[in-house]
Amino acid sequence: METKKRTIQMPHTYVIIFFVILFAAVLTLFVPLGQYETKEITYMQNGEEKSRTVLDPESFQYVTDENGRKMTHTAPLFGTEDFGGQGILNYVFEGLTAGDKWGSAVGIVAFILVIGGAFGIVLKTGAVDQGILAMIERTKGTEKYLIPVLFALFSLGGAVFGMGEEAIPFAMILVPMFIAMGYDAVVGVCVTYCATQIGFGASWMNPFSLAIAQGIAEVPVLSGAGFRIVLWFVFTGIGMAFTMFYAAKIKKDPRASVAYDSDARYREEFQENDERKADFRLGHKLILLVILATMIWTVWGVVAKGFYIPEIASQFFVMGLVSGIIAVIFKLNDMRVNDIASSFQSGAADLVGAALVVGMAQGIIIILGGTDASSPTVLNTILHGISSGMQNFPAVISAWLMYVFQTVFNFFVVSGSGQAALTMPIMAPLSDLVGVSRQTSVLAFQLGDAFSNLIVPTSGCLLGTLGVAKLEWGKWAKFQIKMQGVLFAGASLVMVIAVLIGF
Question: What is the pTM of this model?
Answer without folding.
Answer: 0.84
